[in-house]
Structure formats: structure tokens, C-alpha cells
Amino acid sequence: MRIGILGGTFNPIHIGHLILAEEALDKLSLDKVMFIPTFIPPHKTNEELVDANHRHRMIELAIKDNPSFEVSDIELRRKGRSYSIDTLKQVKKIYGKFTKLFFITGSDSLGELCSWKDINDIFRLSQFVVANRPGYPLKELPKECELVLVTPIEVSSSEIRKRIKDSLSIRYLVTDSVRNYIIKKGLYK
């Protein structure tokens, strides 16, 4: 089995995340992509992070029509800071040694790799996949990384949160189900 792991805060999940997952699914011949929201992200401290249960629910809503996508609450159940290495070890334990894991991240994360906990073990446990992201050019890709070129969509969770605060529309930046959930719950005001 070939499983893509797409982690992050998903604060909120948006169409860029979904496009990345769909294109990685196709280009890497994955059986599925697991979206794994962080409980407490180790590298983001100043972000207005809504409750993990809201972020998990928004992912469920966003991916409900795609049978190749699933959401996992591994990091939410573990609580505390969410480290990728711990998650990969847990997923490997669940799916077994014959499952190949593909850890998917955006090119915006490349500059932080040296600060990731046990990065060499992450490279050992998974195929590390980097997707291009607008505004974050790919300069020197570590030899352990595989590049996946995806349709560039200039959308970010921080932009969406700002638009909500400014009472601007987020239609077409997130799925309708996620937009309706944000409105219903009064998130990011």
C-alpha cells in the first residue's frame, strides 16, 4: 500500500490543500492520502489556531466526497506538540512495514527542515515529497526529497482568516461545506 501523509494546521483547509492532495495521489500513484491535522504545531506559535476539533471537522467536510482521502485524529488523540516523526512511526505501526509512506509538504517548509525533530528518521521512514508553492521557489532540494509539481494556486489559510476578519467572501477558496461550517460556528472573527 502507498499512503500519502499530508499534515498541517489546516486552519482552515482550503482548495490549495485539496489540489495538492489530488495531484500527489495521481502523480505518485498513491492508494490514499491521509490528512493529519496537528494538535499543537511545533513551528507556528503566533497563529490564531482554532480548536483542533473544528479543524478536524472542516477536513472531514472538505474531503467527504473523495474516497481516496481520509482524515486521521492521530495527533489530536496524542495531544501536546505534534511532531512528524512521531506520527510517521505511529502510521507505520498501524499499516505495517510493507506500506510505503509519502510525507508531503510544500516548498514553503523547506527552509525549516533543519529545525525539524529527527529529520533524518523522517527521511528514513518515508519518501519525503516537496510540492511547489507560489512565492516559495525551489532552489536546492535535499537529495532525500522528491519533487511533485502541482497546479499553482495562490491561496493560504492566513489569507482566508484575514478575509473573514475583513468581512470579505471566501467562496471558492474553501469548499462550500467548510465555508458554511465557518459561518455557522463563527470561526476566525
Offer a quick outline of the entry.
This protein is of the alpha/beta class and 189 residues long. The protein has helices at residues 15-27, 52-63, 74-78, 84-95, 119-125, 157-165, 176-185; strands spanning 2-8, 32-37, 69-71, 100-106, 127-131, 145-148.
What does this structure look like?
Strand 2 (32-37), helix 2 and strand 3 (69-71) form a beta-alpha-beta unit. The protein is globular. It contains 7 helices and 6 strands; from the N terminus they run βαβαβααβαββαα. It has one domain (2-153): HUPs (Rossmann fold). It has a 6-stranded parallel beta sheet, sandwiched between helices. The model has no long low-confidence stretch (mean pLDDT 92). The N and C termini lie far apart (41 Å). By secondary structure, it is of the alpha/beta class. 36% of the residues lie in helices and 17% in strands.
